[in-house]
Amino acid sequence: MQGIRWLRRAMKTGVWCSFALSAVAAVCWYSSLSSSATLRYVEDDRWLSVRSDVGVLSVAHAWSYFSDDPEPNGWTWEFLNHELTNGPLLGRRSTFWGRLGFTYDLSVVRGSEIAGHVQTLQVPWWSIMVTSAVPLSLISVVKLHAVMNRRRRRYRVLHSLCPRCGYDVRASKERCPECGSGISLADTTSSGDQEDG
Fold first, then answer.
1. Is the dihedral of CA 83, 85, 86, 88 positive or negative?
2. What's this model's pTM, rounded to 2 decimal places?
3. pLDDT digits (tens, 9 = 90+) for 48-60
4. 3-state SS string over 140-180?
């Protein structure tokens, strides 16, 4: 019994987490179509950047990075309109996944003003929204299936039918002649009470 309670609690938690993540992804996707948001962390010669822009979430990481105009260490947050940005970190690629918005790039930057290794991953917001909605959909289908099974069983019991196969068991005492499953005393009593009423 404890296991069933724990499973129900885990399913409810999964549904709410899935719904919340899907809703956050939808809001971020919509807001990225009109503006760009960038969260950046800098520490000496390394930096990590998370950027939402034009329906795409971009994560970039750089190491052994040198610049003539270094940024201060710590967290920075930047929120800009699209007129002031140049779009996603990586452009659309000609591959199948690139056309869908998935891109990955590992490059070495060498120049007079900046140098370093930069690794960039881009994922479209719609894919995050769809992926986070999958558990919600699966759990909803499982719950709907369980409700339909309960209703079907209740209908069969009330109409003196076998709860398993639906065969008429009014003339049977212990077992269904069609599928051989046992007929409980509660099933026959509830159907008899329904007929008397």
1. negative
2. 0.60
3. 989 888 888 889 8
4. HHHHHHHHHHHHHHHHHHHCCECCCCCCECCCCCCECCCCC
